Amino acid sequence: MDVILLGAPGAGKGTQAKALEEHSGLVHVASGDLFRSALRQGTELGMLAKSYMDRGELVPDGVVIRMIMERIAQADCHRGVIFDGFPRTIDQVAALTVELERQGRDLRYVLFLKVPEEMLLRRIAGRETCKTCGSTYNVYYFPSKRPDVCDECGGRLYQRNDDNMETAQRRLGVYFAQTLPLIDHYRTQGLLREIDGQREITQVTQDMLHVMESNGSHA
Ligand code: AP5
Ligand code: MG
Asked: Is the pTM above the cut of 0.85?
């Protein structure tokens, strides 16, 4: 089965997708991570994406859709995918729906992580990410044991370019304008499940697993 994680910037999509991947065996596919990895490799795609990401704007639909379709066509994704950060626009939803149907895949749930706006900004401001393994920390909620060093792999921690307050506010504006309508779309399809994203990380993971295991009732 496939699962989509929907939620604002800072809602905890990446954190939860990583935990769900460990528990469920599904493959975590994160559009933002794919762009950041392309940028580290110095590809044209990475450079193009950076020009949008640094401004807090969405990368054009055609570019994102092509990248995600290529990723989910790879063999490891046949066992099921957790989508993180995709889809984000109605056109992306349309493209994904067609492709999932074409491949005979089963989109089972859209898990919507609900978090109040002031908490989102604090989470973004405090986020630190490992350059090597991608683990995230938070200077307010759970700092790494040693400053700037990843507990998991010893890699260096950095702050994402788009995690300054000005860009974060813009990302939130884009989210409200372009991504929020997806919630109604998936609710109408009967796929949406709301998850309280304010709770402790492990609790949120448990709530998501509970929904995924129980075939829970519609939100
Ligand atoms: P992307 O990388 O997808 O960023 P985002 O959607 O803005 O989301 P974030 O990664 O900021 O937040 P998250 O929900 O993953 O939170 P996290 O788990 O890290 O996209 C970046 C850019 O790429 C876009 O702006 C756009 O330019 C481009 N892009 C990507 N996809 C695109 C698409 N489909 N179309 C077009 N353009 C696209 O958690 C945040 C912090 O909070 C961390 O420090 C974490 O440790 C902490 N935290 C998490 N959960 C909790 C909790 N329960 N309690 C306390 N702290 C917590
Ligand atoms: Mg993320």
From this structure: yes
